[in-house]
Amino acid sequence: MRIALFGYGKMGQMIEQIARNRGHEIVAKIDENTQDIDFNSMDVAIDFSMPEAAFGNITKCFNNNVPVISGTTGWLDKYEDAITLCNDKKGAFIYASNFSLGVNIFFELNNYLAKMMQNLPEYKVSLEEIHHTQKLDAPSGTAITLAEGVIANSNYSEWKLDNSSDTILPITSKRIGKVPGTHTVDYESVVDRISIKHTAHNREGFALGAVTAAEWIIGKSGVFTMRDVLNLG
Ligand SMILES: NC(=O)C1=CN([C@@H]2O[C@H](COP(=O)(O)OP(=O)(O)OC[C@H]3O[C@@H](n4cnc5c(N)ncnc54)[C@H](O)[C@@H]3O)[C@@H](O)[C@H]2O)C=CC1
Ligand SMILES: O=C(O)C1=N[C@H](C(=O)O)C[C@H](O)C1
């Protein structure tokens, strides 16, 4: 498979390593200075760039009939526009706030736990995410997906950073050293606490998930998620 990397930072470099080990070819490494892009040279694009760059990169790929795997976070105000364009162009698209197998299982667990806790108002929910100090967006995309999972299965109506009430689900973001990504969901009552936590030890899981998604999307058209790729039901 001929892969073009949109963004060749920490994640782009990790994806290159995993993709080569799986027998794929990296045909382009695109960054903010790239002038000419040969879209005919690629079978699939993987975008791990920056919040302000992601939508433009995705748009160019759809306009050139290239399937897109999108891992960049912090651009979701334009997500619906990306879906519309993908459908108009009969393209293929997967966005995931987190491509790792472990986090996608964690998402399922989070939804299940939220359903079980739905009618137990004595438990207050809160989310915490910890990442490295170079991270540009807060809260993390993963924390937003977790919050959306809780909200869909509870009486909370919205999430906010560092702000809570009976209807506002609080998210706390911490930036510490080189932490690859740690997410915790807490249910706290006066008598006890239930916590679920995912800790990434490195970036390999994110990169492997993105390459697996790229392998999976070849030959398909439509908008998909990691639930489809991982067959999580
Ligand atoms: N969905 C997931 O599983 C994961 C998502 N991420 C997200 O991926 C993104 C990238 O993360 P890192 O690699 O750690 O960041 P990074 O800062 O190390 O790399 C970003 C790269 O994007 C490049 N870039 C800037 N403008 C560009 C443009 N117009 N086109 C192409 N490239 C451009 C920069 O030159 C830089 O090298 C972030 O949004 C992060 O939150 C990170 C890890 C996992
Ligand atoms: O920027 C990162 O590093 C990460 N970003 C993603 C996010 O915002 O959730 C995924 C992962 O936690 C690492």
Automatic annotation (TrEMBL):
Coiled coil: none
Pfam families from the UniProt entry: DapB_C, DapB_N
Location (main, coarse): cytoplasm
Pathway named in the protein's UniProt entry: Amino-acid biosynthesis; L-lysine biosynthesis via DAP pathway; (S)-tetrahydrodipicolinate from L-aspartate: step 4/4
One Gene Ontology CC term in the entry: cytosol
InterPro entries: DapB_C (IPR022663), DapB_N (IPR000846), DHDPR_bac (IPR023940), NAD(P)-bd_dom_sf (IPR036291)
Binding site for NAD(+): E32, G71, T72, T73, A96, S97, N98, F99
SUPFAM superfamilies found in the cross-reference section: Glyceraldehyde-3-phosphate dehydrogenase-like, C-terminal domain (SSF55347), NAD(P)-binding Rossmann-fold domains (SSF51735)
Assembly mode: Homotetramer.
Protein name per its UniProtKB record: 4-hydroxy-tetrahydrodipicolinate reductase
Upper taxonomic lineage: Bacteria, Pseudomonadati, Bacteroidota, Flavobacteriia, Flavobacteriales
